[in-house]
Amino acid sequence: MSTHPTESTAELPELPHPSAPNAAPDRLSPEREGSHRRSDPQVSDRQAPERRGSEETGTEEKGSGEKGGRKKGGGRDRYFDLLRAVALFRVVFYHLMGWAWLPVVFPSMGVMFALAGNLMARSLARRPAPEVVRGRLRRLLPPLWLLGAVGVTGMLVAGWGPDDEGRPGWWWLHLAYWILPLSDPPYGDGLPGVHGLISDGWAGDMGVPLWYIRAYLWFVLLSPLLLRALRRLPWPTILAPVALSAALEFGSLAVPGWRLEAQLSDFGAFGACWLLGMAHQEGVLRRLPRYAVPSLAPAVAGIGLWYMLTHDLKEGHDLDDMPFAQSLWSFAAVLLLLHISPSWSEWPAKLRRWDRLITLLNSRAVTIYLWHNVCIGIVEALWDRLWGISWLEADAPWVLESPWPQLPAVWLFTAACVICFGWVEDLAARRRPRLWPDGRGGAGTHRS
Fold first, then answer.
1. 106/83 Cα distance (integer angstroms)
2. How far is CA 240 from CA 134, 222, 270, 296, 327, in A?
3. Which of 88, 146, 155, 176 is deepest in the core (most CB within 10 A)?
4. Residue 317 three-state SS
């Protein structure tokens, strides 16, 4: 079983860097990780500050019907941008509401990994593997370091220290995971909050998204080998993570140590999604008969749904606690989404009004993903203070009990984090820092 407490986006997604009209579009991820993210939560590399981004960050050349899975001409794939934005919004919504069915309705993490894999394959096809991996790490790690600088400092002030885990030597060693997250970075679980400002357990809330950073890092490091295997044996390679997840679930494979188990569990749950993104870019999915995906994906999803329901899917025990069901359900959903793949170079008329919002979510996916849980903790603490207002408690208790009124406040605080901390994503991508990169006025974004 995976050890991460919840699923947390997204994406990281690799975030697309907006490109100026008529210019080669730039993009991000910590991918077009995403759209998963389908943009990768980080930003892409650039050759001469504004060129490399077109292939590695913001621009997705994908295609349903073009050779190699690419669309004729350059440009951002707005369909992937939409998927990444929806995935990220759903992650925030899920962490506030806690409804077990939300990851079933839209498996954000699988989508984000698929979009990241798509961008990774595209970059590896054009540039040497060491350069691509180095660029991904450069975009992924600075946002994590900023979170660690604020969070670890706060935890130390709150009393967290070497004796907290009873093994001081290992505590110092594990702190290195805040620098290079080859395993989950440690945090002070159960630390008290600040009354009326941030709720108890805030360090745990901060730690929730970190499993994704760790999993994403390993996918990036393994991608050159995965792409080679995919080109030689496409479908055995794509299905291997699902087989691994089944082996872990049914006890055929015993793994010593929770850290290794967590790595393998997440690889089994989401590895097929990452590989499907690569396969889409490589044209593997395009070579399937048109009826294959609509026929097989619902059957795989049905098995995953049956497994969820028979293993007590409920609030507090959802898809994240069932890696095998996660692997089947996410595989089927991602396969269908990539099969549909309309490959929009411009927004359809009905979606144009959302261009700036979607651009902003893609451009700051890593920041939103890393900080939104802390924002939820702050809003919950502030909401608790409202119980001191007697007339509100007597006449409108639903305002205090329902999470719905908290949602705008959560996004308001998240927007503040975008302004305060999002600039590090631009520095990591070697771009001019921006406070609010929504593409307004052609400020470096592709406006459709």
1. 10
2. 26, 14, 11, 17, 11
3. 88
4. strand
Q: Could you report the per-residue pLDDT of 400-421, keeping only the tens digit for each?
A: 999 999 999 999 999 999 999 9
Here the tokens at position 169 are: 């030597």
Residue 399 burial by Cβ neighbours in a 10 Å radius (0-12, 13-18, 19+) = middle
Sign of CA dihedral 372, 175, 170, 160: negative
pTM: 0.84
- How many angstroms separate the CA atoms of 99 and 86, rounded? 17
Q: Reduced to 3 states, what is the DSSP secondary structure of residue 38?
A: strand
Q: Supply the Cα-derived Rg of the chain in whole angstroms.
A: 21
Report d(CA 428, CA 146) in Å as an integer.
11
Contact 80, 27 (CB under 8 A): no
Beta bridge partners of 58: 27
C-alpha dihedral sign at 72, 76, 81, 84? positive
Q: At a CB cut-off of 8 Å and minimum separation 6, what does 346 contact?
A: 78, 448
Residue where the block lists tokens 């989508």: 111
Q: Residues of 241-272 as b/e, b for ≥16 C-beta within 10 angstroms?
A: bbebbbbbbeeeeeeeeebebbbbbbbbbbbb
**The two three-digit tokens of residue 160, written as one number:** 């967290």
Residue 282, strand partner residues? none
Which residues contact residue 329 at a Cβ distance below 8 angstroms, ignoring those fewer than 6 apart?
104, 107, 110, 301, 304, 305, 308, 319
| Bridge partners, residue 390, by sequence | none
With 0-12 / 13-18 / 19 or more C-beta atoms within 10 angstroms meaning exposed / middle / buried, residue 374 is buried
CA 218 to chain centre: 14
Neighbouring residues of 283: CB distance < 8 A, sequence distance ≥ 6? 67, 68, 69, 70
Eight-class DSSP state of 314:
B
Map residue 181 onto helix, strand or coil: coil
Element (H, E) at 97: helix 78-97
Omega prior to 229 cis, within 30 of 0: no
DSSP state of 47: S
